[in-house]
């Protein structure tokens, strides 16, 4: 479905739910544009579990979106209707508290709380939301919603906020309100995405470069295992703690206070310390260091347009995530193993936190049909589930869109 059609649907819904029969409001909205926000999901080409280790990754926004339409209501209350979840919620701006029963509303509440905390003037509004971003597939529907809401209030209330602050506020909402201790990657990609480019990002200082990635004869194919990620948050935090422990241990052994993150540790140094460390911790650190190296190589290959070599790096990244970082699952491994046997597949690996979710793969455009047939059949036979295939391209970051004709 066309993007403008989603917004057409949302506009009708907005009028139906919030305006119809209210003469005064109808007049206001005839004169004013509703605020329409288009907020993408994200992919990570390579560089997994590096963001909270001040490392590197190559990521960007994709052409699957959350759509938001709304306007101010001149009160102190916020009312949101989610079309794709068929659920609605209302709350007061001076009483924003965590909702244990309706998880999705917390992303919105958390963002508003951040803006208020930073002194931005926000009053009530009504909003309708729709999406064609699969939830729980590891393509960051949560960051997409957070940044979408952030952009919505920035536009509606004319707030002076720069892109970097939008990333920080949205990330803080997820860390401090929703309670998921994620790094900066998801919100950054959603804010900074650019059509036809990927973002080479250094998490040490959030410095970045856009690198052109011509998908001409090739495609990015996401394969969603549809695997529940119940333990994801706790295991994710467990990995973060292991990394923190490793930093403390290494800086203590080598008596170097300049080692502030695992990205400050070289592979040589790690091997020298091998017998002074727990074997599991050693592997965790090895993943982070080698993954950073793979990102650097991937950047080089991207600039040369060497897709075969980038594909190989994806397979290597998966191996490292599987054996060293241990965030893979049987289904993710099966997908990557089977993909590696098929003609037209350059490479693939689990994407995002792991423990379920999706595989990202780089494939030849002309082979997409046969790849999805083969993998779809095999996966169904083995696990009794049909995986979801999502073909995507690179998109601009979250933005306001205006339509003359809807
Ligand atoms: C999740 C988090 C990100 C990042 C990835 C792993 O997607 O939200 O911040 O840590 O896992 O690379």
Task: Give the arrangement of secondary structure elements.
Blueprint: H1 3-19, H2 23-31, E1 35-46, E2 56-72, E3 77-82, E4 87-92, H3 105-117, E5 125-131, H4 141-156, H5 163-178, H6 185-192, E6 197-202, E7 207-212, E8 218-224, H7 232-253, H8 267-272, H9 279-304, H10 307-324, H11 330-339, E9 345-351, E10 358-364, H12 368-383, E11 388-392, E12 394-395, E13 399-400
Parallel strand pairs: 3-5
Antiparallel strand pairs: 1-2, 1-13, 2-5, 2-6, 2-12, 3-4, 6-7, 8-10, 8-11, 9-10
Helix pairs in contact: 3-4, 3-5, 4-5, 4-6, 5-6, 7-9, 9-10, 11-12
The protein binds alpha-D-galactopyranose.
Description:
The mean pLDDT is 94. The radius of gyration is 22 Å and the shape is globular. The protein has twelve helices and 13 strands. 44% of the residues lie in helices and 22% in strands. The longest helix is centred in the last third of the chain and has 26 residues, at 279-304. The protein is of the alpha+beta class. It starts with a helix and ends in a 6-residue tail after the last strand. A hairpin with a 6-residue loop joins β9 and β10. Bound molecules: alpha-D-galactopyranose. Alpha-D-galactopyranose is lined by residues 48-49, 51-52, 182-183, 185-186, 352-353. Alpha-D-galactopyranose binds at residues 48-49, 51-52, 182-183, 185-186, 352-353.
């Amino acid at each position: 479905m066309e993007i403008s059609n989603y917004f057409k649907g949302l506009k009708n819904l907005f009028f139906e739910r919030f305006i119809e029969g209210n003469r005064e409001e109808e007049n206001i909205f005839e004169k004013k544009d509703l605020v329409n926000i288009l907020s993408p999901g994200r992919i990570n080409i390579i560089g997994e579990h590096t963001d909270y280790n001040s490392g590197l990754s190559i990521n960007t926004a994709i052409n699957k979106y959350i759509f938001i339409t709304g306007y101010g209501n001149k009160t102190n209350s916020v009312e949101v209707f989610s079309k794709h979840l068929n659920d609605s919620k209302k709350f007061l701006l001076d009483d924003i508290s965590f909702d244990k029963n309706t998880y999705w509303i917390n992303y919105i509440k958390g963002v508003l709380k951040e803006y208020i905390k930073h002194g931005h003037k926000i009053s009530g509004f009504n909003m309708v939301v729709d999406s064609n971003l699969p939830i729980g597939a590891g393509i960051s529907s949560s960051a997409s919603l957070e940044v979408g809401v952030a952009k919505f209030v920035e536009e509606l209330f004319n707030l002076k906020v720069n892109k970097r602050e939008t990333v920080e506020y949205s990330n803080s909402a997820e860390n401090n309100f929703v309670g998921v201790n994620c790094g900066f990657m998801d919100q950054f990609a959603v804010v900074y995405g650019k059509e036809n480019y990927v973002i080479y990002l250094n998490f040490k200082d959030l410095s970045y470069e856009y690198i052109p990635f011509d998908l001409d004869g090739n495609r990015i194919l996401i394969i969603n295992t549809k695997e529940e990620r119940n333990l994801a948050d706790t295991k994710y935090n467990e990995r973060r703690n292991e990394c923190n422990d490793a930093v403390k241990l290494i800086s203590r052994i080598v008596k170097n206070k300049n080692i502030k993150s695992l990205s400050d540790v070289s592979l040589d140094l790690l091997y020298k310390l091998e017998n002074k460390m727990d074997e599991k911790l050693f592997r965790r650190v090895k993943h982070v260091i080698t993954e950073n190296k793979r990102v650097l190589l991937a950047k080089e290959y991207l600039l040369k347009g060497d897709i075969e070599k980038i594909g190989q790096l994806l397979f290597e990244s998966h191996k490292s995530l599987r054996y060293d970082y241990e965030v893979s699952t049987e289904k993710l491994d099966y997908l990557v193993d089977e993909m590696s046997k098929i003609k037209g597949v350059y490479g693939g690996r689990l994407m995002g936190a792991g423990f379920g979710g999706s595989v990202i793969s780089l494939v030849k455009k002309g082979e997409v049909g046969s790849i999805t047939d083969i993998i779809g059949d095999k996966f169904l036979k083995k696990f009794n589930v049909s995986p979801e295939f999502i073909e995507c391209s690179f998109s601009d970051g979250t933005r306001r869109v205006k339509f003359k004709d809807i």
